[in-house]
C-alpha cells in the first residue's frame, strides 16, 4: 500500500471545534452547589448535630433562635436546626430509593420497548400511559394503607409511579439511537440485540438517565414532604422536613418560623435538584450536542 | 501575529461600483483566530465564489458579513455595504435587522430550518416585504409574494403561497427560501452551500434560478461552497480560502486553469476524477485539514505542501497579479505551468 | 453451498458452473406502509423497490447511482440482510438470504460489510476506536482482538494508537478510514459502501477513494458502491445501475453508460452534474438545468 497516504494519524486532542464540551452553566453550578450542601448536611449529621434532634426537652419548648438553639426549638423542645440536619438524610434516602426504583425498572423497560418490534413497544407504552395516569400520591397512600406508613414504602410507591417517566423518555432516546448508522453497522457485524442494547444504546441514553434522575429526585423530595405532611410518610421520631412542616401547622400563627425553616429547606433542595437537572441537560443532551 | 500585508487583493477602496467591501476581517473565539485578515470587494452585479473545505472559515466569513456570527465569536475589521451608512461589523441587532432581508439577503444550506414551519410560505414572503415597507399593504405584498413564487418556478404559485413548508420537497423549499431572499431586490445575495443538500437534478435547477435571480436584479452574489464545479458554473470570480485565510483569488477561468497557490493546485487535482496515475489512483493532497484554529503558523498550508521550505514558516504576503487576482505563496506554481503538471502533492504527513 | 435459491422457480441461472455471483438480486420489491393519517382509509403503500434485478460477479466493482428516494438505501439494507423484500430473492455467494432468520444470517455478516456515508453518525461517539473496529470480531468470537485491530488501523493508514481515542478526536476523512477498518475486520469478501465520500472534503475524498481502490485490489473484494454522483461512480466502478423511482432504469459498463446513456433519466442525470471541465468550456447553470427539460 505504498501510494497510501498516511494522514497525520490522530488529530490532536483538546479544542477541535467539532464536538467540544459546553461550558459549565450557571444552573449547573448553583444546582451542584445546593445538592452538595444537602449532601454535606446529611454527612455532617452522622458525626455531629448541636443537640439530639429527637430529644424531647419540656423545659426548652418553643424557644426563639439563639446561640444555643440556632433555629429555635419546637413544641416538644427539640432543636430545629438539628432536625433540619438530620432531615436531610431522610431527604436523600427518599430521593435515592425513589429514583433508584424508577430507573432500575424504567430504563431497561424503555430500552426494551425501543428495541423490540413496534407493536411490542406500543403495547408497553400504553401500559405505561395507564400507570402515568394514576396519581403518585394516591399510590403511595394505598401502599401505606396496605404495608403501613414508612419512608421506604412511601418511596417505593413514588418510585413505581415514576417508572413511566423514565420508560417513556428512554424509549424515545432508544428509538433515536436505533436509527443511527453505528447501530446498523453493529447489526451488520452480527451483534445481537442484547449486546447492542448494552454497548450502544445504554451509553448513549445515559445522559438522559442522569437528567431524568435529578428531576425525579426533586419530585421524590417533594412527594415525601407531602406524604409526611399528610401523615403517610416518615413516621416519628425520624426527623423529616415534611413532617416538621406538618407539626408546625397548628402553631402557624404564633410560631411561623417552625414552618419557614423546613419549608425553605424543601424549596431550596428541590430547586437545587431541578437546576442540576437543567444544567446537566444543557451539558449532555445529545440532541443539542450533535448540531455544531 | 505576522504583519498584515499591505496589498489588498481587490482594487482601490471606495469605488462607486463596490457593493461589498470587506477589510481586514478577523473572527476570533477565545484566543483562537478562525478567520484572519480577509480582504475583498464585490462590485454590483458580480458573482463571486468563496471556496474552501471544512475549517477554512468560509461560512464564518459569510456569517460575519450578515452579522449572524454565533455567540462567543467576535468579528473585527470592517464590512461595508453600499447604501448603508454604518459598518456592519459591530453593528447592533436593531441596525442589522434593517439591513438584512433588504440590502443583503441569505440562502442557507438547510432550507427546512430557514423557514418557519407554522406559517404559510406566502405569508413568510409577504412578511419580508412588509417589514421593510417595500409594499404598502397586505394585499399588494401577497400579490408580490405570488409573483416571486412564480419567478422561482413553482408551478401554481397562488396555491403554493397557501401551503406550509413541510408540504414542499427539499428543492422546492430552497426555491421558497430563494424567493424570500430575492423579495426586496437585495444589493447582495449571500449563498451558503445552497445546493449541497440537494439532488443533482434539483441542484441544477436551483443553481439556474439563483443565477437568473441575481442577474435579473443586477444583484451581487457571494456564493460559498466546497464544490469547485458549482463555483465554476455559477460564478465569474473565485476566492480560495484555507485555514481562515484567503490564499488565492481571481477570475474563474484563470484560477481553475492556471492556479498559482499550491493549495488551489492540489484542490483542483484532487477533485479531478478523470486524471489518474498508471495504477488508476487519483491525485491527492497529503494529510488532512487540521481542526479550525489549529493550522500552522506562517503559511497555513505548509504542513501539507510538497513545496514547503523554511521560508514558509513566516506568513507569505499577498501578491497581486491583477485588479482582482492574487495569491499568497512563497513557491507558487510557475506561470507557464499548466494545471496538474506539477507533481501531485503526495506526501507523508509531517506532523502528528 | 448449503441452500439453493428456492423462491425463483424458473429463472435459475443455468447450471451452477464456476463460482456463484457475489450478489444475485431477482425481481425484488419492497412495499412500506406509512402510519395512518386518516381514520377511514389506510395509507396507500409506498413502493420503495419495484422489481429490481441485477447480478454482481465476484470481484466486480458495481455502482448504483440514483437520487434521494430512488430506493437505493432500501436496496442496501436488503442486501445486508437488515431488511426483507416484500417479494423476490437476494442471494449472497449463491445462498438465498431472503426469509432467513437472524441467526442463519451469520454467513452474510461475515461475507458482506457496510461502509456508511456520514463518518460521524456511523461511529458510536461513546466508544473507543479500538472497540468500534473490534466489534465485528467480538460478534464472531475472534481471539487476539487487539493485534487484529492494530493491523486493520494500519491497513487504512492510521496509527495503531488511534485505537485508544474517541471518534470525535478525528477528522472526517480519518473517521471514514475507521469506518472502513471496521468493515474489513471480519475479512469480508463483499463491501457495500453507501455514499462513502459524499460527506468528505474534496482534498480528502481522493485519498479515501484511493484507499478503497487499494483495498479492493489487495483483498480481491467485490465492491458495491452507491452514490448520487455519477462522476465518482465512473471513476470507481466497472459497471453501473441507474436507479429511479424504485426501479433500475439502465445498467451497463460505466464508461458506456456515461458516454452514451440510453435512458432519458440517465441523460438528465449526466447533464445536470456540474464539472469543472464543462464549466470552463462555458456551460452555465442554465445549461445544466435546460438540458434535462424534455
UniProtKB/TrEMBL annotation, chain B:
Name the UniProt record assigns to this protein: Oligopeptide/dipeptide ABC transporter, ATP-binding protein
GO molecular function: ATP binding; ATP hydrolysis activity
ABC transporter domain span: 20-268
Subcellular location field: Cell membrane
A Gene Ontology cellular-component term: plasma membrane
Family: Belongs to the ABC transporter superfamily.
Any single GO BP term: peptide transport
Topology relative to the membrane: Peripheral membrane protein
Classification via CDD domains: ABC_NikE_OppD_transporters
Keywords recorded for this protein, A-Z: ATP-binding, Cell membrane, Membrane, Nucleotide-binding, Transport
TrEMBL record, chain C:
Coiled coil: none
A GO molecular-function descriptor: ATP hydrolysis activity
Location of region: Disordered: 1-22
SMART domains: AAA
Cross-referenced PROSITE patterns: ABC_TRANSPORTER_1, ABC_TRANSPORTER_2
Annotated Polar residues bias: 1-19
One matching Pfam family: oligo_HPY
Annotated SUPFAM superfamilies: P-loop containing nucleoside triphosphate hydrolases
Family of this protein: Belongs to the ABC transporter superfamily.
Stated name of the protein: Peptide ABC transporter, ATP-binding protein
Organism in which the protein naturally occurs: Streptomyces himastatinicus ATCC 53653
Amino acid at each position: 500500500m505504498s501510494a497510501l497516504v498516511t494522514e497525520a494519524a490522530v488529530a490532536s486532542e483538546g479544542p477541535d471545534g467539532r464536538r467540544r464540551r459546553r461550558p459549565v452553566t450557571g444552573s449547573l453550578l448553583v444546582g451542584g452547589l445546593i445538592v452538595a450542601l444537602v449532601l454535606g448536611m446529611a454527612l455532617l449529621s452522622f458525626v455531629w448535630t448541636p443537640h439530639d434532634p429527637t430529644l424531647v426537652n419540656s423545659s426548652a419548648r418553643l424557644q426563639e433562635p439563639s446561640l444555643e438553639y440556632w433555629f429555635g426549638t419546637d413544641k416538644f423542645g427539640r432543636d430545629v436546626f438539628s432536625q433540619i440536619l438530620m432531615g436531610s438524610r431522610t431527604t436523600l434516602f427518599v430521593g435515592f430509593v425513589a429514583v433508584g426504583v424508577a430507573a432500575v425498572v424504567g430504563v431497561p423497560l424503555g430500552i426494551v420497548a425501543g428495541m423490540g418490534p413496534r407493536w411490542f413497544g406500543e403495547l408497553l407504552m400504553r401500559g405505561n400511559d395507564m400507570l402515568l395516569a394514576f396519581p403518585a400520591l394516591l399510590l403511595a397512600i394505598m401502599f401505606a394503607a396496605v404495608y403501613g406508613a414508612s419512608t421506604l414504602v412511601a418511596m417505593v410507591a413514588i418510585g413505581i409511579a415514576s417508572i413511566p417517566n423514565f420508560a417513556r423518555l428512554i424509549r424515545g432516546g432508544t428509538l433515536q439511537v436505533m436509527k443511527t448508522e453505528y447501530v446498523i453497522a453493529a447489526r451488520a457485524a452480527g451483534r445481537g440485540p442484547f449486546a447492542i442494547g448494552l454497548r450502544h444504546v445504554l451509553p448513549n441514553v445515559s445522559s438522559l438517565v442522569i437528567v431524568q434522575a435529578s428531576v425525579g429526585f426533586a419530585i421524590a423530595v417533594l412527594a415525601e414532604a407531602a406524604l409526611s405532611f399528610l401523615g403517610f410518610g416518615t413516621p416519628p421520631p425520624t426527623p423529616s422536613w415534611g413532617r416538621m412542616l406538618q407539626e408546625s401547622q397548628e402553631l402557624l400563627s404564633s410560631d411561623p418560623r417552625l414552618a419557614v425553616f423546613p419549608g425553605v429547606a424543601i424549596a431550596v433542595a428541590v430547586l437545587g435538584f431541578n437546576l442540576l437537572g437543567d444544567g446537566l441537560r444543557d451539558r449532555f443532551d445529545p440532541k443539542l450536542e450533535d448540531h455544531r | 501575529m505576522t504583519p498584515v500585508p499591505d496589498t489588498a487583493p481587490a482594487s482601490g477602496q471606495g469605488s462607486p461600483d463596490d457593493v461589498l467591501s470587506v477589510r481586514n476581517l478577523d473572527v476570533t473565539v477565545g484566543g483562537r483566530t478562525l478567520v484572519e485578515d480577509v480582504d475583498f470587494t464585490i462590485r454590483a452585479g458580480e458573482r463571486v465564489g468563496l471556496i474552501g473545505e471544512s475549517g477554512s472559515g468560509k461560512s464564518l466569513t459569510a456569517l460575519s458579513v450578515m452579522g449572524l456570527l454565533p455567540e462567543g465569536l467576535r468579528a473585527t475589521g470592517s464590512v461595508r455595504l453600499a447604501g448603508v451608512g454604518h459598518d456592519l461589523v459591530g453593528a447592533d441587532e436593531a441596525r442589522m435587522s434593517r439591513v438584512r432581508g433588504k440590502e443583503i439577503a441569505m440562502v442557507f444550506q438547510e432550507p427546512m430550518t430557514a423557514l418557519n414551519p407554522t406559517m404559510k410560505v406566502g405569508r413568510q414572503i409577504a412578511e419580508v416585504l412588509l417589514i421593510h415597507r417595500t409594499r404598502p399593504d397586505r394585499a399588494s405584498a401577497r400579490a408580490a409574494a405570488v409573483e416571486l413564487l412564480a419567478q422561482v418556478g413553482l408551478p401554481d404559485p397562488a396555491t403554493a403561497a397557501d401551503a406550509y413548508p413541510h408540504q414542499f420537497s427539499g428543492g422546492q423549499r430552497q426555491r421558497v427560501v430563494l424567493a424570500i431572499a430575492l423579495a426586496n431586490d437585495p444589493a447582495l445575495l449571500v449563498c451558503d452551500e445552497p445546493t449541497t443538500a440537494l439532488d443533482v437534478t434539483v441542484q441544477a435547477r436551483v443553481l439556474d434560478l439563483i443565477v437568473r435571480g441575481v442577474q435579473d436584479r443586477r444583484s451581487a452574489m457571494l456564493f460559498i461552497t466546497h464544490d469547485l464545479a458549482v463555483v465554476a458554473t455559477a460564478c465569474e470570480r473565485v476566492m480560495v480560502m484555507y485555514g481562515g485565510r484567503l490564499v488565492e483569488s481571481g477570475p474563474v477561468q484563470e484560477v481553475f486553469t492556471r492556479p498559482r497557490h499550491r493549495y488551489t493546485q492540489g484542490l483542483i487535482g484532487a477533485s479531478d476524477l478523470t486524471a489518474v496515475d498508471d495504477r488508476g489512483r487519483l491525485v491527492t493532497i497529503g494529510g488532512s485539514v487540521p481542526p479550525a484554529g489549529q493550522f500552522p503558523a506562517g503559511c497555513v498550508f505548509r504542513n501539507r505542501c510538497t513545496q514547503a521550505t523554511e521560508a514558509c514558516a513566516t506568513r507569505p504576503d499577498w501578491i497581486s497579479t491583477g485588479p482582482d487576482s492574487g495569491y499568497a505563496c512563497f513557491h507558487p506554481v510557475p506561470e507557464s505551468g499548466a494545471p496538474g503538471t506539477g507533481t501531485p502533492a503526495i506526501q507523508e504527513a509531517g506532523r502528528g | 453451498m448449503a441452500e439453493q435459491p428456492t423462491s425463483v422457480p424458473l429463472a435459475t441461472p443455468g447450471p451452477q458452473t464456476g463460482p456463484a455471483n457475489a450478489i444475485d438480486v431477482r425481481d425484488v420489491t419492497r412495499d412500506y406502509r406509512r402510519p395512518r393519517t386518516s381514520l377511514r382509509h389506510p395509507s396507500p403503500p409506498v413502493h420503495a423497490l419495484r422489481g429490481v434485478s441485477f447480478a454482481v460477479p465476484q470481484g466486480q466493482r458495481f455502482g448504483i447511482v440514483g437520487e434521494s428516494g430512488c430506493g437505493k438505501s432500501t436496496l442496501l439494507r436488503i442486501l445486508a440482510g437488515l431488511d426483507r423484500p416484500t417479494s423476490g430473492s437476494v442471494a449472497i455467494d449463491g445462498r438465498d438470504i431472503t426469509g432467513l432468520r437472524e441467526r442463519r444470517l451469520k454467513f452474510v455478516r461475515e461475507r458482506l460489510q457496510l461502509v456508511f456515508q456520514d463518518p460521524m453518525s456511523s461511529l458510536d461517539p461513546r466508544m473507543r476506536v479500538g472497540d468500534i473496529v473490534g466489534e465485528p470480531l467480538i460478534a464472531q468470537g475472534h481471539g487476539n482482538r487487539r493485534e487484529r485491530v492494530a493491523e486493520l488501523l494500519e491497513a487504512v493508514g492510521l496509527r495503531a494508537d488511534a485505537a485508544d481515542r474517541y471518534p470525535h478526536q478525528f477528522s472526517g476523512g480519518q473517521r471514514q478510514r475507521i469506518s472502513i477498518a471496521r468493515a474489513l475486520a471480519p475479512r469480508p469478501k463483499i463491501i457495500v459502501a453507501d455514499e462513502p465520500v459524499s460527506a468528505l472534503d474534496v482534498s480528502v475524498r481522493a485519498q479515501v477513494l484511493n484507499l478503497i481502490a487499494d483495498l479492493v485490489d489487495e483483498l480481491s473484494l467485490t465492491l458495491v458502491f452507491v452514490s448520487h454522483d455519477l462522476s465518482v461512480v465512473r471513476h470507481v466502478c466497472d459497471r453501473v445501475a441507474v436507479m429511479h423511482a424504485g426501479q433500475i432504469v439502465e445498467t451497463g459498463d460505466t464508461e458506456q453508460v456515461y458516454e452514451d446513456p440510453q435512458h432519458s433519466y440517465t441523460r438528465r442525470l449526466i447533464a445536470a452534474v456540474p464539472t469543472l471541465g464543462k464549466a470552463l468550456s462555458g456551460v452555465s447553470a442554465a445549461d445544466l438545468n435546460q438540458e434535462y427539460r424534455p
